[in-house]
Structure of Transglutaminase-like domain-containing protein:
Amino acid sequence: MCSSRRRGPPNTVKYKIHHQTVYRYAEPVRRSVHELRLAPRSGPLQAVKAWELQTPGTLSEARDGFGNIVHNFTVSGPADTIAITAVGEVQVNLQQGSGGPDSHHAFRDAPASGESRVSPLYFVGGTPLTSAPPEMQAFAAPFLAAGHEVPALLALADGIAERVRYAANTTHVGTSAAEAFRLGSGVCQDQAQVMVAACRAFGIPARYVSGYFYDPAATELASHAWADVCLDAANDLWCSIDVTHRCVTDHRHVRLAVGRDYQSAAPVRGILEGGSGETLQVNIAICPVVD
């Protein structure tokens, strides 16, 4: 339960997050290897105050080419249950203008000194999940014809939210942007991938973002997804657009990972030997806290 809804320092909000993923199997898994992007990193939009992962195996940690914190672990013996828990506190910083057009909504996401990371231009290339068929390109053209300043991006997001209506259980994690666009429905993952695909079709770098969205009225919380769109590749300047809520991201959003699409930013991925009859249970709790 949330014990407080007060904000911390000016222009910040701190959240306590508890995210548990439990896999159960009718036939035990003989061996499994898991890759997690379940640890948020500090950056221009947030500061990680504490974070802990609990898994059945020993964790190794690394950074991928997108700057994400990646953990791996192996379960080497038979297991009929695999539980992964992430707990921590993240302080979200409200965006401050950095000068120039759209500065109020822009943030600079440059690699830290000594860190290797792909160029923003890497996010122009499509993937099987983010290819844009001709009908999607025609749909996006009127929104992006005059450029991709923030008002144009928000108008595009609004158009996508109308074209790909939010509807649970109509798609799955392997659904592509093109498939969701033709279907006309999907969830936040699909809406974000359509946004990414539409921007890339016009040579605009865009990346998929996984994370959390705090909604005090929600009875059940789930992982969320949105899109980062690059406003200035030379200066690593980005704008973060939540298609589902038709807005620039704000104090309600906590970032986990970025990638070219869902596959490269998924919170949990794994390879199993054995383990038939899988069921999945995910529980997420987000509470505002005060120091």
Remarks:
- The domain at 12-92+267-289 is CATH 2.60.40.2250 (Immunoglobulin-like).
- The chain has a mean pLDDT of 91.
